[in-house]
Amino acid sequence: MTRHVVVTGANRGIGRAIAEAFVANGDTVSTIYRGGDLPDGVTGAVADVTDTAAVNAAFDELEAAHGRVRVLIANAGITRDGLLMRMSDEDFESVIDVNLTGTFRTVRRAVNSMMREKYGRIVLIGSVVGLMGNPGQVNYSSSKSALVGMARSITREVGSRGITANVIAPGFITTDMTAELAADVVKQYEATIPARRFGAASEVAAAAVFLASDAAGYVSGAVLPVDGGLGMGH
């Protein structure tokens, strides 16, 4: 049976790589995104994850075309970096609203369909920063850390219905954002990573495909690091 996979934010970066991997896996892939071009084989509904009505309408539209969602990859996220004492309420709240509450909105709607299917795979894209912290990212690390508690609570609520919920915690991944870093900064970061390199978005995507597979049917409430060893012990 072909599964309907929804990946939020599939227009760029890690989300795009994940969507491409599920297309290659033979799944029917759609996305809720804010704009931009999409990978081949991916259909989209434009919506802001901070808007509950828009999220629900987007799911309705995508499910009308492809059937109930069976896999959700909650990837949409933003950063508003700044040191704690200079961080505004708005910068903190906006990151929480997208990364945490936005994830809640998408998961809540997806689980409604998964309960009817008696099957579901939920993968939340967290961050190594959510486990080990990072200066200038109190808002971002808080939002990503909270996804662990979210996945584990979901697991306890709906685990008996054939639904799993897990977190992937990527480390430094080569994307358009990291491509803008200066060469000396990249070298400094690489020196802290046991693998001595940044990861590829395709490596995060491979972890997502695994967690969404039948082979991972007994894996739930877990945090899977894809970080080259950076976050060991966290």
Report what the structure shows.
With 234 residues, the protein is α/β, with parallel strands linked by helices. The protein has a single domain (4-226), classed as Rossmann fold (3-Layer(aba) Sandwich). 44% of the residues lie in helices and 19% in strands. The chain contains seven helices and nine strands. It has helices spanning 13-24, 52-66, 89-117, 129-132, 138-158, 183-192, 201-211; strands at residues 4-8, 28-33, 42-46, 69-74, 120-125, 163-170, 173-174, 199-200, 223-226. It has a seven-stranded parallel sheet, with helices on both faces. It has a two-stranded parallel sheet with strand order 7-8. Strand 7 (173-174), helix 6 (183-192) and strand 8 form a beta-alpha-beta unit. The chain is globular and about 50 Å long. It starts with a strand and ends in an 8-residue tail after the last strand. It comes from Demequina lutea. GO terms for molecular function: 3-oxoacyl-[acyl-carrier-protein] reductase (NADPH) activity; quinone binding.
Question: Which descriptors apply to this entry?
Answer:
single chain, about 230 residues, alpha/beta, Rossmann fold, seven-stranded parallel sheet, two-stranded parallel sheet, 7 helices, 9 strands, oxidoreductase
